[in-house]
Prior knowledge:
Layout: H1 2-9, E1 24-30, E2 40-48, H2 52-63, E3 71-72, E4 81-89, H3 93-96, E5 104-112, E6 121-130, H4 135-151, E7 153-154, H5 168-176, H6 185-216, H7 219-226, H8 230-237, E8 250-253, E9 259-261, H9 265-273, E10 277-283, H10 293-300, E11 311-314, E12 316-317, E13 320-327, E14 332-340, H11 345-353
Parallel strand pairs: 1-4
Antiparallel strand pairs: 1-6, 2-4, 2-5, 3-4, 6-14, 7-12, 8-9, 8-10, 10-11, 13-14
Amino acid sequence: MDNLQRYLNHSKIDVVFKQSKDDFVVTEVPLYDFTNEGEHLIIKFRKKELTTWDAVSIFANHLGCSPRDIGYAGLKDKNAMTIQSISVNKKYEEKLASFENEKIKILETTYHKNKIKIGHLKGNKFFIRLKRVSPVDARIIEQVLAQLAIFGMPNYFGFQRFGIEGDNYKKGEEIVNGQRREKDRKLRQMYVNAYQSFLFNNWLSKRIEISKLVEAFEPKEIYQKLQLPQDLVKQMKEQKHPFKIMLGDLLSHYPFGKIFYAEDLSTEATKFFDKDRVPTGLLCGKRVKVAQDYALEYEKEFTKTLKEDGARRFAWVFPSDIESNYKEDKNWMELSFYLPKGSYATEFIAELIH
């Protein structure tokens, strides 16, 4: 219990993390193995100081094709060294031979029968260097890493989702409420997506707050405050994981699979602790399942009627392949880990140092 409380409540660690090509490396993990056969040329490349869109435009200009002809699985940070794959018709292979760019290095090429599409991604491997890490902080980081390996972390959307000024969600809310019109379809989609993400993050914060209350107090002390039956609070308190599952939560098999409603809390909580399944949160919109029972009462608070399709998102994820290396002579802590697609390394760092 002491370790759990430290995991939930540890204070901020004063270290430096700068998103740069030297201290932040992201390597894409494809959804499937490329077959080395087919009409699509797969280009694995390393880029720095460029967005994925920048890199796609550079390749398109050199090859003489439209950026739409180039497939990619996900968008990667500009302020990082990133390794990812794109696809293009192999008729452009000869032109690729003369490709040169100081910010892009082609690592290898192969072939595949399908064009790479958004979401054709298992996840990402990360390398991160923290600086100004004291020996005391290094020990604390090691302890928190051990807890993250056991309990996982909240799957918040990172600050990148909300734009440079962090207020894209406000524009999305104005669009949803009919207070703003946006002619550019892509911009409109980005703003509304940011608003969906904002609502999700707030729902997740609320559920974490409830989980902490359940962990910290006896059921008879808080069930009225939470407006939940005392026997349900008791069942939640018995769960080993710090994030407490409620009746009616929609769970998903992990790291992928169908979603289903939580009914037997004891069984589902055990399987959640064993990393076999996770609760999901709502990205509100059309054609999406919503929670039931008591879980719905908390979900409704963060639900809006949107024209866009909705989705379910993992509320919790489990970082894996976590490794660390403390270089005391430089006061550096080097970390490597893997996260499933859609999860943010910056949130991993936030969990680590806050």
